């Protein structure tokens, strides 16, 4: 996000930049969530496509690797790629994530998925408002949440072999707490980015894409951890 170098001089200008930028961030995030949900539902409803994904480890893990590669690519190359390329990569990522998340529609009941989605949306909205309005610096919370995230990733890998139920629930609740904190932190960070201004329209759009990606990841992961707690398996 190195193209955010032009800062508005007056308070009205700062608030205007923030409002426009944050609106774009949430619009892109909402679009990506809609695409992911639509693709996941369509894939789960299409036995041939779903079986092709889950029956082939090569294809399934290829999709996951592709998602990770796109996140790294977007994060590192956002300043050198064009606006259309950034938008395309972000939307392709939301499609790939929808394909892999189709497994959820087969593993959990539709009612529990819907209920968990509403809980996630409400929690996300509350923490976004808090992150945007609070005067407290949330940098320390963001740093602690990131370190804790590394910890639960390692713990999750270990528990794949141990299959310890107690560790499963600890990881689930910690995951919820971590991403609740990250939603507030990332929102505050994006508010600050919006206050700095942008060198041009393209710079704002690409920064909005990258901001939408961070909030999208927060939302998806918060949803997945809450689903582990509230979801009813088929």
Order of helices and strands: HHHHHHHH
Beta-strand segment tally:
0
**Tally of individual helices:** 8
Residues in helix, %: over 70%
Output the keywords.
disordered N terminus, globular, mainly alpha
Give a summary of the structure in a few sentences.
With about 230 residues, this protein is mostly helical. It has helices at about 10-45, 45-55, 55-75, 85-105, 110-135, 140-160, 165-195, 200-230. The protein has one domain (about 10-230).
Could you characterize the architecture of this molecule?
The N and C termini lie far apart (44 Å). This protein is mainly alpha-helical and 234 residues long. The protein has one domain. The chain contains eight helices and no strands. It is 85% helix and 0% strand. 29% of the residues are buried.
Describe how the helices and strands are arranged.
Blueprint (H helix, E strand, L loop, with lengths): L10 H35 L1 H8 L2 H21 L5 H25 L2 H24 L5 H24 L2 H32 L4 H30 L4
Helix pairs in contact: 1-4, 1-7, 1-8, 3-4, 4-8, 5-7, 5-8, 6-7, 7-8
């Amino acid at each position: 996000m190195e193209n955010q170098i032009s800062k508005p001089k007056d308070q009205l200008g700062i608030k205007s930049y923030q409002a426009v930028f944050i609106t774009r961030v949430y619009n892109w995030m909402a679009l990506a969530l809609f695409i992911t949900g639509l693709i996941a539902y369509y894939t789960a409803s299409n036995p041939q496509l779903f079986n092709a994904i889950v029956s082939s480890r090569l294809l399934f893990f290829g999709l996951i690797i592709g998602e990770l590669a796109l996140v790294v690519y977007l994060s590192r190359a956002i300043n050198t790629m064009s606006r259309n390329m950034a938008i395309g990569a972000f939307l392709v990522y939301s499609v790939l994530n929808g394909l892999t998340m189709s497994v959820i529609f087969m593993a959990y009941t539709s009612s529990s998925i819907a209920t968990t989605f509403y809980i996630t949306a409400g929690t996300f909205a509350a923490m976004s408002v808090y992150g945007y309005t609070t005067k407290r610096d949330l940098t320390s919370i963001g740093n602690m949440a990131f370190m804790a995230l590394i910890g639960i990733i390692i713990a999750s890998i270990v528990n794949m072999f141990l299959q310890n139920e107690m560790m499963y629930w600890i990881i689930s609740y910690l995951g919820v707490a971590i991403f609740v904190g990250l939603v507030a932190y990332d929102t505050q960070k994006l508010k600050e980015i919006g206050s700095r201004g942008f060198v041009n329209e393209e710079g704002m759009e690409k920064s909005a894409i990258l901001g939408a990606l961070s909030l999208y990841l927060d939302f998806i992961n918060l949803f997945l951890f809450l689903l582990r707690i509230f979801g009813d398996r088929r």
